[in-house]
Amino acid sequence: MYSISIDDHSNYQNSQSIRSLCLNIIKRLFRSKFIFVLIIVFFILFIFINTTAISSNQADFDDANNIQYEELPNNNLKEIENRIVKLENSLDELNKNAILLKNEIKSRHKKKDKNQYVKNNEKKSTQIKKIDLNFDKTVVLVMACNRPESVENHLKQLIEKRASSNYNSKSFPIIVSQDCNHQETANSINKFSNDLYAIIKQPDQADITHSKTGPISLHMRGYFKISRHYKWALDQVFVKYNFSSVIITEDDLNIAIDFFDYFKSMLSILEKDKSLYCVSAWNDNGKESLIDNSRSELVHRSDFFPGLGWMMLRSLWVDELRQKWPQAFWDDWLREPDQRKERSCLRPEISRTDMAIQYAKKGVSMGQFFDNYLKLIVLNKNPVDWLGFDVSTLQKEKYDSKFLTDVYDNSLEMSFVDYLRISNSTDLSNNKKSILIIYKDKNDFLKYAKYFGIMKDFKSGVARTAYLGVVRIFFKTRVIYIAPKEKRNWSKYDLSYK
């Protein structure tokens, strides 16, 4: 059945020659160093083995070529063809099953992805719905840093006064924003977590060493950090949480019993009257000797931004202030003409906040004005039914008309010298009319301010609590107006008053 090729002998001779060559090389290599010889030997053996294998494979190949083909019977071929057909059919069936299985897997994946998409959308929708529900709500934003006892006292009062008001936590949710990374303060805040809408932490704790104008001295850096914190926190409540208005408090404030009812009532006029840009709980001249304690319901317009518990609308932040917020001294910046735009704030006769004496002097300002003014501010103790308060009387047209009439038509005008001379006389005591005293310049005003004990500083030309250039106080049983010489013709504040 097999025949041998004549090339086999020559292949054998070739292999003998190679073996002979290898032996000669080995003999010579033994004269060299042993290690090199060993390496060369292994290399030659490798060549020898491969050469032999090639010769053997060539012989097998030649043998296979010389095999004589035996024809198979026809019936065996038919059987093989049938088997091939069956195998092809089986492969087709397997392929169909594989396609069906693949489609089923795809279908299940799509269903799973759809369910996950629906689930994610439901979750997202719930979050959006929650944020959308905030759009008609006023949030209380508490600014905190590193005074644990102070913020604890403040939050306790806020939560208690909210519970005793005509409104609940849904009407006035509370967010605490903490700066400074002070752990003890964080622990104090966390005690109230169940009563808070959110606790947020200002992420940027980097020191601020330079402003746009140059290096910042160490004792001034706190003011820059406060401004940075305010901007970040206001972005959270208006941009992230989408609240429509905010009441901003600081952790060293006490809260009056009708704090929430007061702000809820004032919100309606703030939203309607475009000549207003804020509502404050604070009266800068709210000392016992300068207020009418029997008139807790009195609310006044003021061209001076008071702060210390104040409310503003989302539109003011998003449309105006956010883009140009200052690096420092944000409160004085808000008092500048470019921000005030001849708008006013509302402020009460009797403050709805005052300083928590045991904590307030430890702030960044190191108790500026504290002993002579801030700690003497009176907190309202007589709650007002603000639901029945007619806020329309505070609209600019109505208010201005009555205010100017009371100041210039219904008051007894006299010089400061005459007032000093007859202030304690029987005639004046029997006359309860308000007194009008005119100031001709800044020095006049400062002289009167010192006598009455009102705050003497100006910000962008505006005295504290002033409206249309007039400062109103209640002194020794009567209203006293300290008004500019232009009287009704007054038109603007003098920016040189600083």
Q: What portion of residues is helical?
A: 40-55%
Strand order of the largest sheet: 3-2-1-6-10-8-11-9
Structural class, from secondary structure content? alpha/beta
* Radius of gyration over C-alpha positions, nearest whole angstrom: 46 Å
The helix count comes to 15
Fold blueprint:
Layout: H1 7-29, H2 34-65, H3 74-133, E1 138-144, H4 148-164, E2 174-178, H5 183-190, E3 198-201, E4 210-211, E5 214-215, H6 221-240, E6 245-250, E7 253-255, H7 259-272, E8 276-280, E9 299-302, E10 310-313, H8 314-321, H9 330-334, H10 337-340, E11 344-348, E12 353-355, H11 357-360, H12 396-408, E13 412-413, H13 416-422, H14 426-430, E14 435-439, H15 442-452, E15 458-459, E16 462-463, E17 471-475, E18 478-484
Parallel strand pairs: 1-2, 1-6, 2-3, 8-11, 13-14, 14-18
Antiparallel strand pairs: 4-5, 6-10, 7-12, 8-10, 9-11, 15-16, 17-18
Helix pairs in contact: 1-2, 4-5
In words, what does this structure look like?
The chain is an alpha/beta fold and 498 residues long. Helices cover 46% and strands 15% of the residues. It contains 15 helices and 18 strands. Strands 3-2-1-6-10-8-11-9 form an 8-stranded mixed sheet, sandwiched between helices. A hairpin with a 2-residue loop joins strand 17 and strand 18. Helix 1 runs antiparallel to helix 2 and helix 4 packs parallel to helix 5. It starts with 6 loop residues before the first helix and ends in a 14-residue tail after the last strand. The relative contact order is 0.08.
